[in-house]
Amino acid sequence: TTIFVITPTYARLVQKAELTRLSQTFLHVPQLHWIVVEDSPQKTPLVTDLLKKSGLVYTHLHVPTAKDHKLQEGDPSWLKPRGVQQRNEGLRWLREDRRAEAGGDNLQGVVYFADDDNTYSLQVFEEMRSTQRVSVWPVGLVGGMKYERPVVEGGKKVVRFHTGWRPNRPFPIDMASFAVSLKLVLANPEACFDGNAPMGLLESSFLQGLVTIDELEPKADNCTKVLVWHTRTEKPKMKREEALQAQGLGSDPALEV
Ligand code: UGA
Ligand code: MN
């Protein structure tokens, strides 16, 4: 079973560091196909080059987030959902373009949405590989909590969710906490992420049409192990850089960071 990992990404100072860390994790995962979708009007040389040298099986896509959907300088990060059109573009590629490729009729596969700043253990990929429809597991350091997780009772059923915020959302889980079988993605060609979904309902907008809570397949020892963390990277300060630039002594812009 191939794991198709869809990663939205956008240009910023830490982008190469994020993608380097991610790609080097993925190198340790057998049968992984990385679908990298840039939030940009064109593919950038930085990402193109990084992917070429990565040693991974990958597909490089791009789609710019529509201007009225993009966060503006100074907006709080929760105001608009991020990476939405990019994940939908990844889904479109799986549903349309992949068919045209060699082996594109193979329906064996699992789809996972991996943001570029999270931290992924190798084990989480082995857990998701056996997904029949939709599998779920805990996520660490998310939602203002040590972890959020589906709560499993009576053997193998998810009965509720441990979360600090609006537990009555249809699926109160983070993007990093679930994987979907390729078969289910292809059988539901209209399922996608809704960029107009109210805050916290992005994951629900995709999952709602695909499964019910009692169909969820708990992984990671009945959702008792944290195998992925919603880490966020601090924005680097450029105070010294700017001071030096003002004197004409800034870092070489041709040197890629
Ligand atoms: C949380 C969730 O974990 C995300 O899956 C969800 O998309 C996001 O909230 C949301 O509400 O939209 P958070 O850490 O706040 O995550 O979001 P980011 O990591 O900043 O962005 C999620 C992904 O979108 C990342 O892979 C990032 O590179 C990408 N992104 C972000 C873009 O493609 N364009 C942007 O302008 C910003
Ligand atoms: Mn993030």
UniProtKB/TrEMBL annotation:
<keyword id="KW-0464">Manganese</keyword>
<feature type="binding site">
    <location>
        <begin position="8"/>
        <end position="10"/>
    </location>
    <ligand>
        <name>UDP-alpha-D-glucuronate</name>
    </ligand>
</feature>
<comment type="pathway">
    <text>Protein modification; protein glycosylation.</text>
</comment>
<feature type="glycosylation site" description="N-linked (GlcNAc...) asparagine">
    <location>
        <position position="222"/>
    </location>
</feature>
<feature type="binding site">
    <location>
        <begin position="115"/>
        <end position="117"/>
    </location>
    <ligand>
        <name>UDP-alpha-D-glucuronate</name>
    </ligand>
</feature>
<comment type="similarity">
    <text>Belongs to the glycosyltransferase 43 family.</text>
</comment>
<keyword id="KW-0333">Golgi apparatus</keyword>
<keyword id="KW-1133">Transmembrane helix</keyword>
<keyword id="KW-0812">Transmembrane</keyword>
<feature type="binding site">
    <location>
        <begin position="230"/>
        <end position="232"/>
    </location>
    <ligand>
        <name>UDP-alpha-D-glucuronate</name>
    </ligand>
</feature>
<feature type="site" description="Interaction with galactose moiety of substrate glycoprotein">
    <location>
        <position position="148"/>
    </location>
</feature>
<keyword id="KW-1015">Disulfide bond</keyword>
<protein>
    <recommendedName>
        <fullName>Galactosylgalactosylxylosylprotein 3-beta-glucuronosyltransferase</fullName>
        <ecNumber>2.4.1.135</ecNumber>
    </recommendedName>
</protein>
<keyword id="KW-0325">Glycoprotein</keyword>
<keyword id="KW-0328">Glycosyltransferase</keyword>
<feature type="region of interest" description="Disordered">
    <location>
        <begin position="237"/>
        <end position="257"/>
    </location>
</feature>
<dbReference type="GO" id="GO:0000139">
    <property type="term" value="C:Golgi membrane"/>
</dbReference>
<dbReference type="GO" id="GO:0046872">
    <property type="term" value="F:metal ion binding"/>
</dbReference>
<feature type="binding site">
    <location>
        <position position="87"/>
    </location>
    <ligand>
        <name>UDP-alpha-D-glucuronate</name>
    </ligand>
</feature>
<dbReference type="GO" id="GO:0015018">
    <property type="term" value="F:galactosylgalactosylxylosylprotein 3-beta-glucuronosyltransferase activity"/>
</dbReference>
<feature type="binding site">
    <location>
        <position position="117"/>
    </location>
    <ligand>
        <name>Mn(2+)</name>
    </ligand>
</feature>
<keyword id="KW-0472">Membrane</keyword>
<feature type="binding site">
    <location>
        <position position="39"/>
    </location>
    <ligand>
        <name>UDP-alpha-D-glucuronate</name>
    </ligand>
</feature>
<feature type="active site" description="Proton donor/acceptor">
    <location>
        <position position="203"/>
    </location>
</feature>
<keyword id="KW-0735">Signal-anchor</keyword>
<keyword id="KW-0808">Transferase</keyword>
<feature type="binding site">
    <location>
        <position position="82"/>
    </location>
    <ligand>
        <name>UDP-alpha-D-glucuronate</name>
    </ligand>
</feature>
<keyword id="KW-0479">Metal-binding</keyword>
